[in-house]
Design a protein that fits this description.
Layout: E1 3-6, E2 12-16, E3 25-26, H1 40-53, H2 56-61, E4 63-71, E5 77-78, H3 80-92, E6 95-107, E7 110-121, E8 124-137, E9 140-147, H4 150-165
Parallel strand pairs: 4-9
Antiparallel strand pairs: 1-2, 2-3, 2-6, 4-5, 6-7, 7-8, 8-9
């Protein structure tokens, strides 16, 4: 069963109950489509999936030429070309990315995600909570802004290092 809630500001959230009955899994929405025929939420989901699959070209194709990518408190990356160069470098170095979207909501061209991201390199893996804000126009992402907790990042790094020596400590995605 899919539930939706409209709040006074007009934001519509779509959630589908998980196996345990809570409202933690996002559902496909019947939200307005972009010029490319997909809703902004679908564009964001496709983008994050491409990143997790290591499909740099699809991810790059889903961002605008004038993309603004911000990890709050870190330097901003501006432009598709700089983003693409960084992404190709990320993949060339063998750094892995995984994502689990817990919630996704859309208001017009704005998409918000609550998710768990994981970064890995060889036997090291860390995962942490992230809240992301995306702006999607004409089927491409023009803004990607992520918020996270540095303490959570640090603790997940410590756990990742410990898990190299004690594999049972290796983090796994929620619900896996």
């Amino acid at each position: 069963m899919v539930s939706s809630v409209t709040v006074p500001a007009g934001v519509v959230c779509y959630f589908e109950p998980a196996d345990n009955g809570d409202m933690s899994e996002p559902a496909e929405s019947a939200a307005p489509s972009t010029a490319a025929g997909r809703s902004p939420a679908e564009v964001v989901r496709s983008f994050l999936t491409a990143l997790a699959d290591g499909d740099a070209q699809t991810a790059i194709d889903l961002v605008a030429d004038d993309l603004v990518y911000e990890n709050v408190s870190l330097p901003t990356i501006r432009g598709k070309q700089r983003f693409g160069k960084g992404l190709h470098d990320f993949n060339r170095r063998g750094i892995g990315f995984d994502v689990r979207i817990h919630r996704i909501t859309q208001d017009g061209s704005t998409v918000m995600t609550e998710r768990t991201d994981a970064l890995s390199f060889r036997r090291f893996r860390q995962q942490f909570w992230v809240c992301g804000v995306f702006e999607v126009h004409d089927g491409v992402i023009t803004l990607w802004r992520d918020y996270f907790d540095w303490r959570d990042i640090a603790m997940s790094g410590v756990r990742g290092l410990l898990a190299i020596a004690v594999p049972r400590l290796r983090a796994t995605m929620p619900g896996s």
